[in-house]
Structure to design on (856 residues):
């Protein structure tokens, strides 16, 4: 019997962008990217500000949009200490990270918040910002300010507008990432109301979210208080983006905003069954986006999912899964369709987790694409046949530590010559 | 003024293998490697067993030679708990890691220890073992046993025999690694006695020593008790091998043995000035070997040294230096001779160290090949000229955190298409 994929009871995802009620968006080219592609986007609420929950990079060198968004969120709800609050809009720029730009870069970001606030008729402190691109270069502030007016005039409620925003965020991405889950939650009078959770995200290099995550916007029309929303977001991020790696490099700009407009008029109280249902929908969207990011990793040809069971607890399982998909040697072996499972075992043994067992796992089992390769000792297998199975857009590595009942998964991609080519000639 | 290289007051190293008094070695082909190259080696003492200090991998999946050496050392001096003790010989096999081979692999290793002990006329528990190569394959025990007799008969005191042992340890290495420091220490009667510290090591993939280190043998003819020797070894390892990375993958087989024969008749007491002088010689040899390993990293064209000053303490400086040389994006940029210093800043900000400051380093300075690129804000520089400077067999990245006075360094190499090519077709 081989190690089957872990069962996941998450709501089904549609891989498309669907605009939840209460939000508008627009995107266009403003001259930040040398390519002339769309590089400026705005997401805005209808009238009332949305509840916001946020996670930011743990990189010590935080980009200016990260510092500013955190400070503004903190001002909007001091209790959230920068992790939740309220906002009317998110400004999205791509092609320039506005990171390691010193005081000048912080001022640039502030000027843009003032321009956005003025155009929307709201306080600048009720806007947020995300940015992605080259570190150490300045934003072309004048060009962005000139482009803001027509952009705001074109804000639209359509699904296409959200899709355009996803495309605007792209840098080395080969395709936009989007995911939607639709559920029903009861209104105040108990009648079921349709609720949408939709998310967009960008990849695909400097991706190793840690206690934080990558650029993504998650939107829902459910009515949720900011602190409750933050709890739901953390649960999802811990199991999805914090389990994603492309190259083990954590970016200076990682940001996830989860915005709830409340327009669906389905109130969600903390600890309720509705909160649980909404939380599962959020996790399902986040998982889909993280997997889309891994599949589109720079130079990648194969999405690697590693699932671990039998761990001491879920936290250990996640750490082991992540260590496997982060290993350069495992990634290179997958690229070469080489069933070199010894590297999987070695990578698992390197997982960093508090209170590691003194004894390793004497009954460890490993399967690769459904083929058992190790069960406490090496198993005979047909290497050529397994290599052929590995030649697929997605492969599953399963480990059973046979200790207790912790489970977890992580997402990564193969390491190719193309990754090196792309990243040895990026800035010059 | 640019950021100069950190001053290092270490004794000068000769990059060659010199056999210290009291040791013999031999190496030959025994049919482990498919290439038919030398894959079996023995290091042995003259008569009395040597004092031994050891560090082993922290990978949870420890190879059979690691488990056995630790157990034997423990038996030879229970106080050392497997980290120091005494031994007559080290058996070195290459081409097969004897890792993830279950109980059978442990038995193989024991049979070889018995054969070696019998051939040398010593207890098997007074022998040690190191092994490197493919994980998950078995050692050809019968072939190795047949080769042991002629090998032991050919044991030699010559420098060439130690060089042959260094060559026997190679797997994907393109050249052997060796280093020697000669010092003088006083004999019992106060007259100066020449003392040699010599080391050999192998690289060059699955290299990310952590609280442990890679395959290396360090030899000295100084007279040192095992526990004292262990203290000297740890000080050296912390600043050298634990600051080396090729691909962030920690091997299952990492082992350093430091053996002292005492043949120079220069006794070294713990805490003495002699211990300090010997410790510096050991560190100097270890640093040279670690740098040779980085320079010969799989697919590498450039040795990257990162030196950090102005850190809260030395530990933080070492963590930051190591984060920079471990970053795939920094490694790829160096390969492309791309002065993309933003990646250096981002990698430094990712350093994992306890009690990280809440505020990042507002006055951070970065220089690349002696050119200042960041001083709290981006500095103007000639990108083409700096790119030309980076086209060298060795480059220096300097960071000054401008916090307190901690310093440290780390060693790595660039990430090339060749690394991916080598590692996507290793086992099959």
């Amino acid at each position: 019997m081989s190690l089957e994929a872990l069962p996941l009871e998450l709501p089904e995802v549609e891989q498309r962008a669907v605009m939840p009620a209460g939000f508008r968006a627009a995107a266009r080219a403003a001259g930040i990217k040398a390519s002339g592609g769309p590089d400026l986007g705005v997401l805005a609420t209808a009238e009332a500000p949305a509840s916001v929950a946020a996670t930011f990079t743990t990189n010590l060198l935080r980009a200016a949009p990260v510092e500013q968004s955190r400070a503004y969120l903190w001002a909007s709800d001091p209790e959230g200490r920068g992790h939740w609050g309220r906002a009317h809009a998110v400004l999205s720029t791509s092609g320039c990270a506005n990171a390691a730009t010193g005081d000048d870069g912080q001022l640039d970001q502030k000027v843009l918040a003032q321009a956005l606030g003025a155009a929307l008729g709201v306080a600048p402190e009720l806007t947020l910002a995300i940015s992605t691109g080259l570190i150490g270069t300045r934003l072309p502030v004048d060009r962005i300010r000139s482009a803001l007016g027509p952009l705001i005039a074109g804000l639209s409620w359509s699904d296409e507008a959200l899709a355009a925003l996803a495309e605007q965020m792209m840098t080395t991405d080969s395709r936009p990432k989007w995911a939607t889950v639709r559920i029903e939650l009861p209104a105040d009078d108990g009648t079921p109301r349709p609720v949408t959770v939709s998310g967009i995200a960008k990849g695909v290099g400097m991706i190793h979210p840690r206690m934080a995550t990558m650029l993504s916007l998650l939107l829902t029309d459910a009515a949720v208080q900011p602190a409750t929303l933050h709890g739901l977001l953390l649960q999802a991020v811990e199991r999805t983006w914090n389990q994603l790696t492309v190259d083990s490099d954590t970016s200076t700009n990682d940001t996830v905003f989860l915005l709830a407009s409340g327009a669906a008029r389905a109130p969600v109280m903390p600890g309720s069954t509705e909160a649980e249902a909404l939380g599962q929908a959020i996790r399902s969207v986040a998982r889909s986006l993280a997997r889309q990011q891994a599949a589109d990793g720079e130079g990648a040809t194969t999405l690697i999912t590693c699932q671990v069971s039998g761990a001491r607890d879920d936290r250990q399982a996640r750490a082991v899964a992540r260590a496997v998909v982060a290993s350069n040697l495992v990634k290179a072996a997958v690229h070469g369709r080489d069933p070199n499972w010894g590297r999987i075992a070695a990578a698992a043994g390197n997982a960093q987790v508090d209170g590691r067992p003194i004894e390793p796992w004497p009954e460890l089992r490993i399967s690769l694409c459904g083929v058992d390769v190790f069960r406490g000792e090496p198993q005979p297998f047909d290497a050529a046949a397994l290599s052929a199975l590995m030649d697929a857009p997605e492969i599953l590595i399963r480990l059973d530590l046979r200790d207790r009942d912790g489970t977890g998964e992580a997402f990564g991609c193969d390491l190719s010559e193309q990754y090196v080519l792309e990243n040895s000639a990026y800035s010059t």
